[in-house]
Specification:
CATH superfamily: Glycosidases
Strand content: 15-25%
Distance between the termini: 5 Å
Number of domains: 1
CATH topology: TIM Barrel
Number of strands: 13
Helix content: 25-40%
Largest sheet: 8 strands, parallel, barrel
Structural class: alpha/beta
Length: 422
């Protein structure tokens, strides 16, 4: 039964490193190979989306969806500083045009966590040179693909490093941290470190403490990310003024119990409101929500006793999405696109129920007048969940990694039906 208008962007999302396979020039690939690192397994061929993107996009199309959010791998496009790969440029041009040819709106993300090794060797996401490097890359993308793009997200979950810093402090203070970071990071391993890992980092990146995007971020690093976004936005608009530009943020439904009001306000300020000045000129905000955070007088509380948990140990809480949409719309006055919302579960019936509740909330927000223009479920495919490896199943499409055979789940068609009258 139709829930959204034909103009509404309804689809699913992926990230290049999590699905393509063999992104060998990225910092994430380098970290996966480290014997003393925190990755549970390497990505390898991933789900071979690099070669099978047509099959995957056609499955999305056949289900009735009309949008696909995916990322371009910076390390493929610019393998060495200032040198752009014509071969990889043509690959992504083919992906974008395949979407266009099949009535799918491509929503492109320029940076989804993984970065070129050369960038990290220069200081990564704490270096003053990174905004200019990112702006150069953004300009190239706009010049090459601008005619075929209407929406570009500069940076995925720009606030992730700050969230990781916060949870790292909580672990250090022996506070509850489970489910507070909306990414597959093994926080205890990240905190522990080792002399062996330091040596491996030094060999790969020229430093024993590389500032990758999902490192615990300093205040200066947070400023670098904001400057990089603003510089990329300027580059994109100069080369392709019609493109709508935004970024995405990882946003919890921050709630509190009596006595937790002040800390809850501080949590939301760190997660969202302190970014408002740099977002003021954006066309849209990508909202990414998976669950809620409950704040008490001493900080975040554990998941409620007896709560249903996902494979990621998030509380099953699809109603959090509409709460977040309403809250961000009070301060950000551009368009809103849900660029990620989903659940890691082996029970597709629970995924369908999650989707139904979450998208009903989106519909309610639209009916209230909020400018919500799209919803992209995370993820199109069961994929590589960073440090947690392949055990987390978020996908609308299952993948047998031994054969790479795809199997569309009922949830894929349940989502597609929301754009149909039957």
């Amino acid at each position: 039964m139709r829930r959204f208008s034909e103009e509404f962007l309804l689809g699913a999302a992926t990230a290049a490193h999590q699905v393509e396979g063999n992104n060998t020039l990225s910092d994430t690939w380098a970290q996966e190979q480290m014997p003393h690192g925190s990755y549970s397994e390497p990505s390898g061929d991933a789900v071979d989306h690099y070669h099978r993107y047509k099959e995957d996009i056609l499955l999305l199309k056949e289900a009735g969806l009309n949008a696909y959010r995916f990322s371009i791998e910076w390390a493929r496009i610019e393998p060495e500083e200032g040198e752009f790969s014509e071969e990889e440029t043509e690959h992504y041009r083919s992906v974008i045009r395949f979407c266009r040819d099949h009535g799918i709106e491509p929503i492109v993300t320029l940076h989804h966590f993984s970065s070129p090794v050369w960038l990290i060797r220069k200081g990564g996401w704490e270096a003053d040179t990174t905004p200019d490097d990112f702006a150069r890359y953004a300009a190239y993308i706009a010049e090459q693909f601008g005619d075929d793009l209407n929406y570009v997200c500069t940076i995925n979950e720009a606030n992730m490093g700050i969230q990781i810093s916060t949870v790292a402090r909580q672990i250090f203070q022996q506070m509850v941290a489970v489910g507070k970071v909306q990414v597959g990071v093994n926080m205890e391993d990240l905190m522990r470190g080792s002399p062996e890992l330091a040596r491996e980092n030094l060999e790969a990146f020229g430093t024993d403490r590389p500032a990758v995007f999902v490192s615990a971020r300093t205040t200066h690093g947070d400023e670098i990310v904001m400057k990089a976004h603003a510089a990329a936005r300027e580059s994109l608009r100069k080369a392709a003024p019609h493109i709508k530009v935004g970024w995405t943020l990882s946003l919890h439904d921050v709630q509190c119990v009596p006595g937790g009001e002040e800390k809850a306000q501080a949590e939301w300020a760190e997660e969202f409101t302190h970014y408002l000045p740099v977002m003021a000129d954006d066309d849209f905000l990508g909202v990414q929500n998976y669950s809620r955070t409950i704040i008490g007088p001493d900080g975040p509380l554990p998941n409620p006793e007896g709560a249903e948990l996902t494979q990621m140990e998030y509380e099953y809480y699809p109603q959090g999405l509409e709460n977040v949409l309403r809250r961000v719309a009070k301060d950000f006055h551009g368009d809103l696109i849900v660029t990620e919302n989903g659940i890691a579960t082996s029970d597709d019936k629970r995924r369908i129920a999650f989707l139904d509740r979450a998208t009903q909330g989106v519909k309610s927000c639209i009916e209230e007048g909020l400018p919500v223009k799209g919803y992209c479920y995370w993820s199109l495919l069961d994929n590589y969940e960073w440090q947690k490896g392949y055990g987390m199943t978020f996908g609308l499409i299952g993948v047998n990694r031994a054969t790479q055979v795809r199997t569309a789940k009922p949830s894929l068609y349940a989502l597609g039906r929301l754009l149909r009258d039957d």
